[in-house]
Amino acid sequence: MSDNITVPNAFSTCGSSPSVTIVIPTYRRSLSLLQRAVDSVLMQRYDGPMELIIVDDNHGDEFASSVADFVTSIDIDDRFRVMLLVNDGINGAARARNLALAGKTRGKYIAFLDDDDYWIDEDKLAKQVAALEVDEEAVLTFSHGYYEEDDGDRTPYFTVSFQSSQPTLADMLENDCVGTPSQVLIRKTALDRTGGFNTSLPVQDDYELWVRLRQCGTFIRLPEYTFVRSRHAGEHVTGFAGDRARAYAQILAIHRDVYGMVPMAWGHVALMQRRYARQSHGAVAPVSVKNHWRPIAQYVLKHPRGYLAMRRDEWRANRKSMIT
């Protein structure tokens, strides 16, 4: 890892410990989108000390110098300390977040924001900090938000369908009721206990972390719309199904005992793995029905419409890949 950059200001020189750390990993992203993400952090009305850590995964290319110049130009007030960490290679978002967590984050609470996502509620952090301060058993809080397409169209992020204010472990396992890291605020002590993101997973490392965190304490859902998750045309095409299939197989193996307590979730994840394995056209083998038949049967019997919808979506995806 090369030298880091810290933007000096009143907070960084006074030695105050931050209440909240915000981590933004970035890789080959236009500076306008990164600027939008950073601006949405700086607009927060939370009045406690904060630190913003930008982790640059653009090792040795033209993006690296651009990001460094951008960080040194950020106009911050005395609530913020800004730091740039530069990775020693292209390591992916999970490793980039872990780099920030490994001895760099000083906040009591940790927030994450992808470089092309942004927050739309100026009180997002204030509301989430207040929720965790009130409930000492809670380790994570999340909210509602939107998907945004390249043309600006917005649709509700999938967590809008989840209404429980405190999801159970079963809710977490079966529904992934949290989703993107861009919306969460996490108690740092819980992150320290769980060890951060699992970098052995090709995708779904956020979901796997939520599974571990939910075993450390409770989650709180806030009803407000606080974030926008960007979706870009053409992303998640090459190898996406295979990566999802590999990830679900690994997660089932890692958390076999936990899923054993929630057969519906076990069956659902096994079916998802088989769905993406079939879409990978032989790149990944489906998990054996023999090893998962009971929870799969329980899920199908309880959620026949969900199962039929899953098979319908699988058929549409396969048909689209044949056409293109």
Automatic annotation (TrEMBL):
Kindly state which keywords UniProt assigns to this record, in alphabetical order.
Answer: Transferase
Question: Which GO MF term does the entry hold, naming one?
Answer: transferase activity
- UniProt cross-references to InterPro entries, sorted A to Z: Glyco_trans_2-like, Glycosyltransf_2, Nucleotide-diphossugar_trans
Cited SUPFAM superfamilies: Nucleotide-diphospho-sugar transferases (SSF53448)
Q: Where on the tree of life does the source sit, at the highest rank?
A: Bacteria
**Start and end residues of each Glycosyltransferase 2-like domain:** 21-192
This chain belongs to the protein called Glycosyltransferase
List the source organism: Bifidobacterium choloepi
